[in-house]
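Support reply, case 0932

Customer input (verbatim):
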Amino acid sequence: MFRLLVLLAVASSIALCRKGPVAQTFPKTFTYKQVGNIDVLANVYKLDGNAPRPVILWLHGGGLIFGSRGMLPADERERFLRAGYVVVATDYRLGPETKLPEILRDVEDAYRWIQEKGPTLFSADPQRVAIVGQSAGAYLALMAGVRVHPSPKAIISFYGYGDIAGEWYSRPSAFFSSERQVTKNEAFRVVSNRVLSESPDLPRQQFYVYCRQNGRWPQEIAGFDPLSELEKLYNLSPERLVGPRYPPTFLLHGDRDTDVPYQMSERMADALQRQGVEHRLSRMVGFNHLFDVFPDGLPPVGKPTGLQNRKVASAFQDVLDFLSRYV
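Our regenerated output:
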């Protein structure tokens, strides 16, 4: 298996096992919606007590192709809990079996479920919900800012993007093209014949790499051709959709990101600025994708030190401070 797949697999698996002080939580798994015979699940974490608490809706990355609610890094989860939040990490249906409009509907349904069922099930304060996402999950979080009601109190985007119509996604990626080429047969061999709402990273990461090597993500995951259906992709790009009432937003992005270009967060910040939306952009100088898991560089260079890294810990405290201001 070539290098990129191994790195990403290690990143998410280590995030699950990362050691640290364990808060007294009540981790429970709920079905927040059903699609046919598929249960779409959410893990809920909270400290003891029944007083209403603000909520973090956490959305995992994986290119909308692989991953699960279990990818929430343990050290970040613990920091959210200690700050007084209920943490709800959700699955959503995955592409290419499910296309982007339906994936977004899952996010809307998860948010609605928190609003309607959260107060009874896990002492959620439905008026104080923030959405936090990483990579593709950050894209979903940014889209939620224009799709869910009532509007979330804040959005946090870790190395996310507000554009799916641009050349960065619709043309071959130089970085991914430097890896071993994934053939079309290899890529589609890992596609399921049924709807999926969670998946191990391997082997489905091969499909993501194939999409990036061939500029096929918009067609395969969004379901729209950037040549003939560009307007539909614009309508799914939050940097084009933000208005003055968009939620306060904090964007964090490594300026050496080899997966999602740092400029994606710069452009999103510019869109927010034009609309007068409260926002912050944190340029993580010298950091790559997954910087909150591998702050010292992807393996074999770096180790999964996460919030043990001083700069990453400081940035995460900035996130908590931002949330405390608006949530």
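We compared this against your earlier run and they match. Two observations from our side: Confidence is low (pLDDT under 50) at residues 1-6, 8-25. The longest strand covers residues 124-134. Please reopen the case if you see a mismatch on your end.
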